[in-house]
Amino acid sequence: MLTFRVDKVMLVLTTASLLCLLFFDFVSLQPNRILPGTGFSLFDAVGNSYAAILIGLLLGMLLLSVTSSPKRRYWQLGITLLILCLLPFLLTIFASIHIPETQTQARTGLGASFWCLVFLLALMLVELKEKLKISTIPNCFIISLVLIIWFLLYSAGALNSLALVREYTARATPFHQAVMAHFYLVGGALLCSTLLGIFLVFLMRQYKAAENAIFPLLNFIQTIPSLALFGLLIAPLGYLSSKSEWLQSINVGGIGWAPALIALIAYSLLPMVRNSFVALNEVSAAVIEAARGMGMEPIQVFFKFAFH
Question: What is this structure's pTM?
Answer without folding.
Answer: 0.70
